[in-house]
Write a structure and sequence with these properties.
This protein has about 350 residues and is α/β, with parallel strands linked by helices. It has three domains: about 200 residues, 3-Layer(aba) Sandwich (Rossmann fold), CATH 3.40.50.300; about 70 residues, no CATH class; about 70 residues, no CATH class. The protein contains 13 helices and twelve strands. Helix 4 crosses helix 5, helix 4 packs parallel to helix 7 and helix 5 crosses helix 7. It binds adenosine-5'-triphosphate and magnesium ion. Adenosine-5'-triphosphate binds next to strand 1, strand 2 and helix 1.
C-alpha cells in the first residue's frame, strides 16, 4: 500500500463568476520515502492539491468528490481531533513565504520547542535540546546561540530552514513543500533543495515538492507529475520525463528551462495562457495552445495512459510513464480497443 493515495479528487471554488474547477479528477500515489514533484504553470491547481491533502482548504473552496487515503486511513472522513493528529504527526507542510509561518514575537528556538511539545510529552529542557539539534540538522550555524534570536534576525533562507526544522520536529512521514524556494534568492535556493534531499534520506520522509519550475525539481525528485488546468497530464520518473517528455505541454515547459552554456537570448515560452477554470476548453484542455492540436483534440479529452502500451492509469501495473495526449496515445488506445470518452460538443466517431 502506498503512503498517500489520491483518487479522482475534485476540488471546486464557488465564486461570483461561476464554479472554478481548480482540481478536476486527479489520481496519484506517493510511496514511503519517495520524493515526487508537482509542476505546472501558475493556476494549474498545485497549491489547491496540497491544501486538500491536509484539509486546509478554505471557503469558497470545497472538496467535491474523490478520496484521499494516508497510510490506509480515509483523510476526508477524519474527525477534527484525528485531523489535528494527522497534521501534527504525519503530514507537515512548508509554504512559500517563511516569514508568514513564523511568529515574530517568539524566538525561533521557542517556536521549534513549542512544536515539539505540542505533540510529545517532554520536559522543557528536552524540547530545548531537541530544537537546537534540529537547528543544527538544518545547518544553521551557531545553533545554540541563535536559538534565542527572533525571526527578523534571520535572512529569508535561514528563516525557511527554521520552518523546515519545525516541520521535521514531529518526524512526519510526508512533507508537503509548496514552492519552498520561490520567495528566496536563487543562490539560496540550491542550498535549501540540497537540505531537503539530505533530510528526506536521513528521516526517510516522503516529499511532495511543488514548483512551477521543472529545473528546480530535477535534482531532488524521484518522479515528476505535470499538472495543467486542474488535471495531471503527464507523469514519469524524473530522468525519463526530462529526456523523453511526451506531452506537448511538458515539452514546452522543458524548453523554457535555462541550461548551462545556453546561448539563447530569450527562452521560448508556451504561447497563450492557462485557461479560465470556470470555462475550460472542450476536449484536451491544452489544445488552444498546442502546436500539434488537431480536430480530435478539440472534441474529446485524452485520458492518462501508459505511453508504451496505452493501458489506462487506473488499471493495474501500467509502466510508470503516462501521458494524456492524442498525439502520442491514440494509436495505442485504438489498438487496445478502449472506449473513448466524448465530452460536451463531441460527436467524433
Ligand atoms: N480562494 C479562491 N477562490 C477562487 N478561486 C481560487 C481560490 N484559490 C484558488 N483558486 C483557483 O484555483 C485554481 C488553482 O489555483 P492554485 O493556487 O492551486 O494554483 P497553483 O498551481 O498553485 O498556482 P501558482 O503557481 O500560482 O501557485 C486557480 O484557477 C485559482 O484561480
Ligand atoms: Mg500555488
Amino acid at each position: 500500500m502506498a503512503l498517500l493515495e489520491v483518487e479522482d479528487l475534485v476540488v471546486q471554488f464557488y465564486t461570483e463568476d461561476g464554479t472554478v474547477r481548480a482540481v478536476d479528477g486527479i489520481s496519484y500515489e506517493i510511496d514511503r520515502g519517495e520524493t515526487v514533484a508537482l509542476v505546472g504553470e501558475s493556476g494549474a491547481g498545485k497549491s489547491v492539491t496540497c491544501l486538500s491533502l491536509l484539509r486546509l482548504l478554505e471557503r469558497p473552496g470545497e472538496i467535491v468528490s474523490g478520496e484521499i487515503r494516508f497510510d490506509g486511513r480515509d483523510v476526508l472522513g477524519l474527525s477534527d481531533e484525528e485531523l489535528r493528529d494527522l497534521r501534527g504527526n504525519e503530514i507537515a507542510m512548508v509554504f512559500q513565504d517563511p516569514s508568514a509561518a513564523l511568529n515574530p514575537v517568539y524566538t525561533v528556538g521557542e517556536q521549534i520547542a513549542e512544536a515539539i511539545r505540542a505533540h510529545e510529552d517532554v520536559t522543557d529542557e528536552t524540547a530545548r535540546r531537541r530544537a537546537i539539534d534540529l537547528l543544527e540538522r538544518v545547518e544553521i550555524p551557531d545553533a545554540a546561540s541563535r536559538y534565542s534570536e527572533y525571526p527578523h534576525e534571520f535572512s529569508g533562507g535561514m528563516q525557511q530552514r527554521v520552518v523546515i526544522a519545525m516541520a521535521l520536529s514531529c518526524e512526519p512521514d510526508l512533507l508537503v513543500c509548496d514552492e519552498p524556494t520561490t520567495a528566496l534568492d536563487v543562490t539560496i535556493e540550491a542550498g535549501i533543495l540540497e537540505l531537503l534531499e539530505d533530510l528526506a534520506a536521513e528521516f526517510d520522509t516522503a516529499i511532495q515538492l511543488v514548483s512551477h519550475d521543472l529545473g528546480v525539481v530535477a535534482g531532488l525528485c524521484d518522479r515528476v507529475q505535470v499538472m495543467y488546468a486542474g488535471e495531471i497530464v503527464e507523469r514519469a520518473p524524473t530522468e525519463e520525463l526530462y529526456y523523453d517528455p511526451k506531452h506537448p505541454y511538458t515539452v514546452g515547459l522543458m524548453a523554457s528551462i535555462p541550461r548551462i552554456g545556453d546561448d539563447r537570448d530569450e527562452l521560448p515560452t508556451i504561447p497563450g495562457s492557462m485557461p479560465d477554470l470556470v470555462d475550460v476548453p472542450t476536449g484536451c484542455r491544452f489544445h488552444p495552445r498546442c502546436p500539434y492540436a488537431e480536430e480530435a483534440c478539440r472534441l474529446r479529452a485524452p485520458s492518462l495512459v501508459d505511453v508504451e502500451t496505452g493501458v489506462p492509469a487506473d488499471e493495474p501495473a501500467p509502466n510508470d510513464h503516462l501521458a494524456a495526449c492524442h498525439e502520442y496515445t491514440d494509436d495505442l488506445v485504438d489498438g487496445l480497443d478502449y472506449e473513448v470518452v466524448v465530452e460536451d460538443g463531441g460527436g467524433l466517431e
